[in-house]
Amino acid sequence: MLNLILFGPPGSGKGTQAEKLIDKYNLKHISTGDLLRAEVAAQTELGVKAKAIMDKGELVSDEIVIGMIENKLKEGKLEEGYIFDGFPRTVDQARALRNLLTDHGMEINLVVALQVDKEELIKRLLKRGEESGRTDDNLETITNRINVYENQTKPVTRYYGKRKLYQPIDGVGTIEEIFLRILAEIEKVEH
Ligand code: B4P
Asked: What global pTM score does this model have?
């Protein structure tokens, strides 16, 4: 069984690489960003609240995203493990994930942290904004998302560093090159 976290700043390629990894390893993809966008699209009460927060580039409350993860894990595991994409984004989320996985007799095997400089992140997200119309991919919101990452999410790197699970990976290059770098690290861990 392989349980993987894809970690990195907004625009670092988490969602992009997750798509390739789920095919290769038959993993269940859990993206809190996608789950939240589904709530927004369905115009649920949660979605309406979440949209306002996401459009500012802030983090949705730990309570909400942890609850979403809990529900996903309850669906049971038909696949050979999970990819957590964009979660955890705070140390409290990381602690909650550990407890939830323990309850299900599982643990994280590896945290893949994609390293991309700020200029490249902004370039990628502005391009996606033009192509997809995602309302949080505008310069003001992108800048805030990167600041929020630095202040609230980066401390999560120490949490996993202490547990020897944290693996930085150069996230600049072609999508295929980065995928191969990730595969090389996955092959090194027991799963
Ligand atoms: P997310 O949906 O997680 O969005 P993201 O961080 O921007 O990354 P994403 O995975 O979509 O993009 P990727 O890097 O693959 O979060 C959105 C919002 O939801 C957050 O701001 C927050 O408000 C909320 N949220 C989500 N999770 C939360 C949590 N746990 N707690 C609280 N709030 C939460 O790709 C970006 C672009 O780069 C794409 O266009 C892609 O094509 C391109 N790209 C990828 N790899 C490339 C490469 N190698 N070269 C060139 N371009 C590349």
From this structure: 0.94
